[in-house]
Design goal:
- The protein is mainly beta.
- It has four helices and 15 strands.
- The strands form five sheets. Strands 4-3-5-6 form a four-stranded mixed beta sheet, covered by helices on one side. Strands 9, 12, 13 and 15 form a four-stranded antiparallel beta sheet that branches.
Amino acid sequence: VLENASEQERKGLVTFCSDVGLCVSLTVVQKGAVASAPDWPEFPHKSLAIRFTADWCGYCPEMAENFHSAEKQIPGKFEIMNVHGGESSYDFSGFAKFERYFNIQGFPTGIVDYRRDVYYASEVVSAVEANYPAVTGIEVSTAMEGGNLSADVKLYVKEAGDYKLTAIVVENSIIGWQNGVNGNYIHDRVARVALTEVLGNPFTVSEDFSIEEFSLSGNISSEYDYNNLELIVYV
């Protein structure tokens, strides 16, 4: 790193020679001092496991159990989002876009990080532990006023490039019927409202180590229990 070098030294010819006398001249241009990068921590990767399901689907509770089993094996490593479709009692308005994007042929269908089809707990664990590098850190603050939810999202982006931001409200502790289960069933992490495009709002970061800020909002129906809502934000 040529922090104190002159312009001529920063951009000039450097000659490298081997022991046998073969020499090569190269032009060296300093891109920038490493010291200019902010002292950001390593961002731990957290996966998103989406389960496409319906309350009439008899095999869907088995996949749910597989997801929960994987959670116990690798706690805190991934988030679950359950997306209902096919005229389920908890249909998500954005299901059709997911259905086309992932070419969903039936229920249940499980996807980890938009990359891997999964069903069994071991497949979930394997997909999550693939440990894709995380180049973004996410900071979120929310506020509820009346039926309107607002979310301020700050992204710490280590690498320039094209990204998509998705924010979806999920509801927990919904007690209702589920095919394949005797008695009432507790539906958790049920996708309810998207505060962005379902498949993400695209944005471009032009420089490494950039901070991007977004203000999101959406109307939350009074039929949902506000005390049981969570917001999942992912890049």
